[in-house]
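It is worth pausing here to work through a concrete case rather than discussing structure prediction in the abstract. The textbook approach is simple: state the sequence, then state the predicted structure, then interpret. We follow exactly that order.
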Amino acid sequence: MLYRLRRQTRERQAVDLLTPCAHVYFGGVITRPTLLCAAALAFSSPLAAQSLTQVADSSPFRPLDLPTPTDVRSASGRPGAKYWQQRADYRISGILDSARNELRGQETIHYVNHSPDSLPYVWMFVEQNLCAPNSITNQLNQPPLVFLGSSFDFSCQGFNGGGNLESLRVNGVDAKRTVYGTTMRVDLARPIPPGGAIDIDAKWHFNVPPQGGGRMGHDGPLYEIAQWYPRMVVYDDVRGWNHEPYIGAGEFYLEYGDFDVSLTVPASYIVAATGELANPEQVLTPTQRARLAAARKSATPVAIISRDEVGNMDKTRPRIFAQGELSALAPHSSLTWHYSARNVRDFAFAAGPNFLWDASGYNGILIESLYRPSADKWSEVNRMGREAIKYYSEQWYPYPWSHATTVEGPVEGMEYPMLTFTPNSPSREDQQWVIAHEFGHEWFPMMVGSNERLYPWMDEGFNTFIDLANAARYFAGTPYGDSIEVHPLHLYAEHATPGEEQPLITNPTQVRDLFWVGYQKPALMMQTLRYEVLGKDRFDAAFRSYIKAWAFKHPTPADFFRMMRDESGMDLDWFWRGWIYSTARLDQAVDSVGVKPEAEALVYLSNRGTMVMPLEMTLTFVDGTRSAVKLPIEMWNLGSRFVYHVPQHLRVTSVEVDPRHALPDVDRANNRYPR
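Step two, the predicted structure:
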């Protein structure tokens, strides 16, 4: 009895509060409340005001909680007037001892502090420790990640190695260093002031694993070498030092700079590497140099090393002595290959004695493919690579470096500036995909340097998205080419399992289905945004602007979100919330069809899922005619139900929502009326 009296009292108070409001019915629906109504609700009752402030905004269109814009990262998503990033330049000398399976090296890093902060210590990556006996990778022995038919083993496969850092000096003085697995803290005698710089000298060696974390290693005399030198951790305005450990699944986030690298290898070896070869006269024959010059101007492959020349380099390649004499190389001798690279974030190389070498040119860029005679799918690889570089350059952003080289070997697929490692694949379609995918990484993240150790959707996902259109173009007119772009959509039902699927924002080391979360779902997201939300022209212009603005810089997710909004003119927070920050599921439905007294047909639509998207439907009328209707996302502004007023005064006999099956709708049984 007491509860009922109190409730009635509260109801009378509510009526008193609502009395000044226009168009208000007690127990009904409030429509068009006036300013006087708002004032009454806000000020007439402290309890009512408190209740209003405690109600969370549950609208799917509520703003994302993004970092506050600054003069470093602007509200438009572009680098701000005071944007800064650190710089690390490297001078490295490496010696590959194939007899001992050992790589020895020394380096000098010139590190410039462009930040406004004074740095009392620096962090470095020592990723050679991935295979150390006490490393996280070796201790956990995590199972391989399966990507459809491919298995990526990010373990060291039982190899116990690790790096041996012989010395480390800062500005000529031994520095205190503390190693934590694949990261190392270096304490400085004096902090680096804003605008200051230090020189770090290091000497090191390690044994090359048969396969290190799925990204480097050797197969007999063939070496694919990466993560091979101590390098600087990124210090940025967002997180300070980004020293997440390297344990295999997460990839890399690195500073940009210039590299000067000398690689001494057995004389019979051919080397492919990041950067431009600075001493071709000392390591290549005149014939090879002439062929390379011709290849740069050729749209079709030129054989730099033909099949009958494979394995004979120590006999056919001359060496220039100081006196200018030409002499055959002595047995067991070595050659030093000298490379320079500008404005890159990493350096990798491959070396081996038994390479076929093809090359062609596109727009002055040398497209190269090096492979062993056993690689039976590689005769078409150079064309595949050239078409990929051409498409990405003309569609999105011009390729900025002098060459794009791919090397066949044991690594399943990995990318570095100007250089990729790719295997011999079981089919022509698979071969094209891996060649184009690894070259696509030259855009994401080699140019647009996002943090792929945290956000694989910003590099693997964006790259997969551009790969799909390229593959469709390359195989146009074939069943594969005509269906490849819808592949991610077809994978949705299998991988987007409720309770199992993880949001795209999940750290990659914690992702159970990286194939979906890192690659295919973000590609589906980008396709959906391009074709179903913004439209191709609107999307393409915005995405090109994003690439251009952040080339050779470090964008964050917030920068991408803001720039796509700013360029396209559409608020997309609802889109990113559904696709990236949650595992929201789409279920659009047609509930019924009615008729108003004036004979105007009404189509009752609902959004039964947790994701919102624009709606497309086909209406069929009593006379057999059809009408295609596209409704914008704003249809859901007022809730999950919407009534569409059909402008034609004809009876609607049937309705189909998403007739093209373009969206990942989880229940198509309710997409038709009548059922």
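Step three, interpretation. The CA atoms of residues 457 and 518 lie 5 Å apart. The chain has three domains: 2-54, 87-426, 588-673.
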